[in-house]
Design a protein that fits this description.
Layout lengths: L23 H6 L1 E7 L7 E7 L1 H41 L3 H6 L2 H18 L2 E2 L2 E2 L10 E6 L2 E6 L9 H12 L5 H53 L2 H11 L1 H6 L6
Antiparallel strand pairs: 1-2, 3-4, 5-6
Helix pairs in contact: 2-4, 2-6, 5-6
C-alpha cells in the first residue's frame, strides 16, 4: 500500500481480528470457543463464547465507516483543487499576451501560490494513507458483505501524481514559465472526472453501510428477544425459591394448629 499505518484502513483488507485464528469453514458459519472459568463458590464452570456473523459484521461496519471518512476527505480535497485552478484560470484570462511571454513578477507569484496549493492538495493523507495515488500501487481494498456475500470493494484512487496535465502544470515551476489556459482547463477537466468517480463510489459505500447497520440492528434485536424468552422460560434457582415463598401452600404448612 502507499504508506504503512497501524489503522484498519491501512491494510489491503478489513481487519477482522476475532476471526483471524479460525479456519475458513468456521469463519463462514461461525465458531464457538469453550473457555474454563473458576467459580469461587463451586467447581469450575465451562462457558461458551461465540465468534459468529455478528462479530464479523461489526468489524466490517467499523471499517466501512472509516473508508467513508477517507472518501469524504478525497471529495473535499478535489473540490478545493478545482476551486484553486478555477481562480487561477480566471486570473490568467485577464493577463495580456505580453504578461504570458515575459512572465511578470506579479503573475509569477500568483502562479507559485496556486502551484504550491495544488502540490499540497495532491499529497494530502488520511489516517496515514495518501488520498491520491501515483499509478504504481494498487488502491485501498476492503472486503464487505452485501446480500450474504463478501465482495471486495476498492476505494477511489485518482492518480493525480501521474496525470500528465497535473505534472505539466507543476513543471512550470522548474521551467519558469506560466501554464497555458488550455493546460489549466485540462487539469480542471481531469479533476472534475475524478470528482464524479469519487461521488459514485461514495454512494455505493453509503448503500452498503446502510445494509450493514440494518443487519446489525436486527441481529441485536433478535439476541435481546432470545434472552428475554430464555429468562421467562428458565427462572433459575433464585426464581424457584422466590416462587416457593410467594405460594400460599408454604405459609399454610408453617401455620400452628388451633387449640
Amino acid at each position: 500500500m502507499r504508506d504503512s499505518s497501524s489503522s484498519c484502513l491501512a491494510g489491503s483488507s478489513y481487519c477482522d481480528e476475532p476471526c483471524t485464528h479460525l479456519s475458513p469453514k468456521q469463519r463462514e458459519g461461525g465458531s464457538a470457543i469453550h473457555t474454563i472459568t473458576h467459580n469461587p463458590a463451586g467447581p469450575r464452570v465451562s462457558t461458551k463464547r461465540t465468534y459468529s456473523q455478528k462479530n464479523r459484521s461489526k468489524t466490517m461496519l467499523e471499517n466501512a465507516r472509516q473508508a467513508m471518512g477517507f472518501i469524504d476527505k478525497q471529495h473535499s480535497a478535489i473540490k478545493d483543487l478545482i476551486k484553486q485552478l478555477q481562480i487561477f484560470n480566471g486570473y490568467c484570462e485577464q493577463l495580456s499576451s505580453e504578461d504570458f511571454i515575459t512572465c511578470s513578477s506579479h503573475a509569477w507569484s500568483v502562479y507559485l501560490m496556486h502551484a504550491q496549493a495544488l502540490q499540497s492538495g495532491v499529497n494530502q493523507c488520511f489516517m496515514g494513507k495518501r488520498l491520491f495515488g501515483d499509478g504504481a500501487q494498487p488502491p485501498i481494498r476492503l472486503h464487505l458483505e452485501e446480500d450474504g456475500r463478501v465482495n471486495s470493494f476498492d476505494l477511489p484512487d485518482p492518480c493525480f501524481l501521474a496525470m500528465p496535465s497535473i505534472q505539466s502544470f507543476m513543471a512550470g515551476v522548474s521551467q519558469q514559465r506560466l501554464p497555458s489556459l488550455l493546460l489549466i482547463n485540462s487539469c480542471i477537466a481531469e479533476l472534475l472526472n475524478a470528482l464524479i468517480d469519487v461521488q459514485k463510489c461514495k454512494a455505493n459505500l453509503s448503500r452498503i453501510i446502510t445494509k450493514l447497520a440494518s443487519a446489525k440492528t436486527q441481529s441485536l434485536h433478535s439476541l435481546t428477544q432470545s434472552s428475554v424468552i430464555q429468562l421467562h422460560s428458565d427462572p433459575g434457582w433464585f426464581g424457584k425459591i422466590k416462587k416457593i415463598f410467594n405460594s400460599k401452600s408454604f405459609f399454610l404448612r408453617g401455620r400452628p394448629l388451633s387449640a
